[in-house]
Write a sequence for this structure.
């Protein structure tokens, strides 16, 4: 495929492994398509790559075969052994110019139209429903890893990678945002696909507000901020296997969500509440969310 | 109670088999394909890996090893991270400082280098396998990384890399070391596998595929 004779290219210096600050991006001169490289360094032992990494990559490759419109294309995975202890795994992704964070920042002063928000949300939910039906959860959904193409197409990114590099993230001083984390994760209870619905709920609200809904500074603070909005759940909804007790929090009553997201319409508010449900088992699923009345009546896209 | 008894005796049999693999199993095991030339295997794997790397390099006209673009269909450019979504940034600065529990790797002794090569080299081979998770790893199903409290400040290296600790703790691994250890940790699949690879006896070679079937 790529054996053509030399065309023009940008000569660049070797930035060396680990250099960050730059990203390699390329244009396929045949198709005009853009790709970008993302490298992940994986510690290896005498058995090679950790089996979890291998499994994860295999999964990503398998998902790729579905060619889902709301998931970022993974074009290739290239592994190079750097040393006995380290393998560099380079993922070749399609390149999309902006993520939802920038998209929201760049939105006109008046904000996004309700129709635009609905369209973004529907695409987001489609992508999620696809991942979840393939037993993949994102676990760290936030505006930064939701890509939005210039045509307004939503593409989920960064899912499944968590297992590949979470160990590194945990050990590097990178601050991981808590703002989109659901109660069960903050409480370190068991969790599954509903985590992504919670995060999507936060993002849904943020599309209207254009600032995050819950900006906690620590796990406890984050949970406190959440409970100030959704209220303290009944005792039986509080997970039993956690160290942080329910008594730790004041008994708060739920406040109307429209206090925090005034522009949302009634159906939107209903859906949002179903997404921001404390109990993950009672939280709406991506599949059911797509069936929700909010998505049924069309608004004109602007 | 009978259940328990049964499983204990089964366990004993297992342990016995492991302790005296040669004596107990000679009649059952067959060495179907002759002894493995580990050196040759290693060389083959290396050349295969190189082949794959070259193919990658050609496909993308990018030297992944040197991290440098080459001439070709793809027009590479280096863009600053501010101009590109955060997602594309390399996620790891450098793991080197980390490692405490990811076994600070010992240089394998000659003993272990050869037999381990099959596992060592098959990075890409393993990637090519459509789904190797037919043996589900209990930690993987959706609830993994629970201990991985990213913000708690507690380093969560337990989740990193191999879940099972390498049985090898010293450089001079002798096969007998394994037998002793394996008696204690009869449940560790990895150690079983390692032991299989480590053993140069053709007998245990036959065990490998069988273990994998589970």
């Amino acid at each position: 495929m790529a054996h053509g004779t030399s065309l023009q290219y940008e000569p660049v210096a070797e930035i060396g492994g680990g250099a960050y600050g730059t990203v390699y991006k390329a244009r396929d001169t045949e198709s005009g398509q853009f790709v970008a490289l993302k490298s992940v360094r994986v510690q290896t032992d005498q058995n090679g790559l950790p089996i979890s990494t291998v499994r994860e990559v295999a999964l990503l490759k398998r998902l790729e075969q579905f060619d889902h419109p709301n998931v970022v294309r993974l074009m290739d995975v290239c592994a190079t052994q750097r040393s006995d202890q380290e393998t560099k795994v380079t993922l070749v992704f399609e390149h999309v110019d902006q993520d939802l964070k920038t998209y929201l920042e760049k939105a006109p002063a008046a904000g996004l139209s309700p129709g635009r928000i609905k369209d973004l949300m529907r695409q987001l939910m489609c992508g999620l429903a696809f991942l979840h039906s393939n037993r993949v959860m994102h676990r760290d959904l936030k505006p930064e890893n939701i890509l939005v193409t210039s045509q307004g197409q939503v593409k989920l990114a960064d899912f499944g990678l968590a297992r590949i590099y979470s160990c590194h993230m945990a050990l590097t001083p990178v601050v991981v945002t808590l703002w989109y984390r659901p109660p069960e994760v903050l409480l370190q209870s068991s969790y599954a696909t509903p985590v992504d619905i919670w995060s999507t709920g936060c993002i849904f609200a943020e599309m209207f507000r254009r600032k995050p809904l819950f900006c906690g500074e620590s796990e406890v603070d984050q949970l406190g901020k959440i409970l100030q909005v959704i209220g303290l759940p009944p005792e039986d909804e509080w997970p039993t296997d956690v160290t942080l007790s329910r008594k730790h929090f004041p008994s708060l009553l739920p406040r109307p969500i429209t206090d925090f997201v005034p522009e949302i319409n009634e159906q939107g508010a209903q859906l949002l509440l179903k997404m921001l449900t404390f109990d993950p088992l009672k939280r709406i699923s991506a599949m059911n969310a797509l069936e929700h009345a909010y998505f049924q009546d069309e608004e004109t896209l602007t | 109670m009978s259940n328990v008894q049964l499983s204990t005796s089964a366990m004993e049999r297992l342990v016995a088999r492991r302790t005296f693999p040669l004596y107990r199993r000679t009649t059952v095991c067959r060495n179907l394909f002759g002894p493995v030339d580990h050196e040759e295997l290693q060389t083959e794997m290396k050349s295969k890996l190189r082949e794959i790397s070259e193919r990658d390099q050609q496909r993308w006209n990018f030297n992944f090893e040197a991290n440098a673009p080459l001439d070709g269909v793809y027009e590479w450019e280096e863009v600053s991270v501010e101009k590109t979504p955060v997602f594309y940034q390399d996620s790891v600065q450098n793991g080197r400082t980390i490692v405490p529990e990811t076994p600070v790797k010992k240089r394998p002794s000659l003993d272990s280098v050869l037999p381990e090569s099959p596992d060592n080299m098959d990075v890409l081979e393993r990637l090519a396998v459509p789904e190797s998770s037919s043996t589900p790893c209990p930690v993987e199903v959706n609830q993994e990384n629970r201990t991985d409290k990213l913000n708690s400040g507690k380093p969560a290296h337990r989740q990193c890399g191999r879940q099972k600790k390498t049985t090898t703790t010293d450089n001079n691994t002798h096969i007998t070391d394994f037998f002793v250890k394996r008696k204690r940790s009869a449940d560790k699949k990895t150690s079983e596998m390692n032991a299989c690879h480590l053993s140069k006896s053709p007998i245990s070679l036959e065990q490998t595929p069988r273990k994998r079937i589970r």
About this structure: Chain B touches chain A through 87 residues (CB under 8 Å). Residues 193 and 208 of chain B are 6 Å apart (CA to CA).
